[in-house]
Design goal:
This protein is about 45% helix and about 10% strand. It is of the alpha/beta class and about 300 residues long. The strands form three sheets. The chain has a five-stranded parallel β-sheet, with helices on both faces. The model has no long low-confidence stretch (mean pLDDT about 90).
Length: about 300
């Protein structure tokens, strides 16, 4: 029985992917061009990169952050006025993080980019493996997210970075929008909007926010990026997992759902920002990091304010 080879809709070569949301079959060349076009458009639209910038990249060694660093290097690597540096945070999760850190070291070595590795142990005197078994009010992912974000920002500030790039893809962004809707957390939704300059916080950028997770994985595979595999052992605790399954099911039955969710949020983010303006920042009286109250969330979670 003969099998029919699907052809690229742009050039008639063998297709490697079918984008249900766009109705397009794409070959390797045109798939890569499509991903990179969307990323360049996102950067132009949301993150105007000026001359003499230093872009720090939160690098975990997984597919998303590795693809982010690779593409930023492809776009800006030839510009002498733009500097790239990787920041890897070791949360202290045995059997998971050491493997991905090695992948991050391999990628930065290949690209000739400096890598800074910082750890929860050296900064906070504890690890996620020590925090996870403890009795606590919030889930493990809440602790990890807050502490990692704080240490990323602190390290980027110390490096003099003007931008902090993170590898959030379309799935991550759509999940976060829906999660905040379901929790009625308007203040967090406001912080999802394109960033504005606030003293003490390095401007964040998300170059992959328009790229579906599966396409990020395929792009990384096609470029043979060194990746650490395996999932975080604590991820099952988060409500985000349920949102992920829900959105994936909706996307199968209604292609384009994730894009529509993010597009709708982008259209109303300006209104949200005017109705719920972000508060000015002060310095945490315990660690000195920027925060909206007297004590930052990281210090609160660590019990330093007791």
């Amino acid at each position: 029985m003969e099998t029919t080879t699907l052809r690229c809709d742009k050039c008639n070569r063998d297709a490697i992917i079918f984008q249900k949301y766009s109705g397009m079959h794409l070959c390797r060349k045109h798939f890569i061009e499509d991903v990179e076009r969307k990323i360049k458009l996102t950067i132009r639209k949301h993150y105007s990169i000026k001359r003499n910038e230093t872009i720090a990249v939160g690098l975990s060694g997984g597919k998303d952050s590795s693809t982010t660093l690779y593409i930023l290097h492809k776009i800006f690597g030839g510009r002498p006025d733009i500097s790239l540096v990787g920041i890897c945070i070791d949360e202290g999760i045995e059997g998971y993080r050491p493997n991905t850190i090695e992948s991050a070291k391999e990628l930065t070595s290949q690209l000739g980019i400096e890598l800074i590795v910082r750890s929860f142990k050296e900064e906070y005197g504890t690890t996620m493996d020590l925090i996870a078994p403890q009795k606590r009010e919030k889930g493990t992912c809440s602790y990890c997210g807050v502490l990692r974000k704080s240490l990323l920002n602190k390290t980027a500030l110390e490096l003099g970075a003007t931008r902090l790039a993170i590898g959030h893809n379309l799935d991550d962004e759509a999940q976060t929008v829906l999660l905040n809707h379901l929790k009625g957390d308007v203040s967090r939704m406001v912080r999802l909007a394109p960033p504005k300059e606030l003293e003490g916080l390095v401007l964040r950028m998300k170059p992959l926010r328009q790229i579906p997770e599966k396409e990020v994985a395929l792009y990384a595979y096609l470029h043979d990026l060194p990746l650490g595999f395996g999932g975080c052992p604590y991820a099952h605790e988060a409500m985000r997992g349920e949102i992920r399954v829900l959105l994936n099911d909706l996307e199968v039955n209604h292609p384009g759902t994730k894009y529509a969710l993010l597009s709708g949020f982008d259209k109303m983010s300006g209104i949200l920002g005017r109705e719920f303006p972000q508060e000015g920042l002060a310095n945490c009286r315990l660690c000195g990091q920027a925060c909206t109250e007297g004590v930052c969330q990281a210090c609160k979670l660590l019990g330093r304010d007791q």
